[in-house]
Prior knowledge:
- There is one protein chain.
- This protein is mainly α and 199 residues long.
- It has 2 domains: 2-110, Winged helix-like DNA-binding domain superfamily/Winged helix DNA-binding domain (Arc Repressor Mutant, subunit A, Orthogonal Bundle), CATH 1.10.10.10; 120-199, no CATH class.
- It has 7 helices and 5 strands.
- α2 (32-43) crosses α4 (62-74) and α3 (51-58) crosses α4.
- Mean pLDDT is 89; it is low at 189-199.
Amino acid sequence: MKTNNIYDYVERLNNLLRADSRQAIAAHGLQPVQLEVLHYLSTCNHYSDTPMAVTEYLGQTKGTVSQTIKVLEKKGLIRKYSDKNDKRIYHLKVSATGKNLLIKTIPTAMFANACEVLPDKKKLEILDSLKQLLTTVLQINNIKTFGVCHTCRYNGKTKDDGYFCNLVQQPLTVNDVDLICREHKNQVTPNSVTKNLMK
């Protein structure tokens, strides 16, 4: 019974947020999925800003993602550029126009207003519970975590207190470690499903 109740609350919140988001972006001629792609691209690192990564993160089809990218590029909200090492791969970056749109639409006014009236302690409790729920769903179903670098087992420190990715053997900037990555692996064992592993 509790599982059904949790699902009902999450689904209702999702429906309300998508409806509010749809209204907020209607004037820009965008659909919610297009805003979701734009938002993802604004939070991921340069190892995760490819069409394939977008497809994995959102669970959409390649066709949907491809069409969405075309729309966002045509509206000047994102830019494409080729990979330095493999010209078959291209990366996607949010433009200044895209960033301004995100500032205006995420979070939605309805959600922001609701959070404003909640005490800080309650917001932290909700945040922790949602992190635990998301982490559990991802782990139990063997879904990529797409967590932030500083919570990843591959993230290491250099002698000068910088950051280094032991997977790709590349240095990371302070900004990099706060971005989400498709190669993210939890720092703890898979059975620790109630640990706080997400940003």
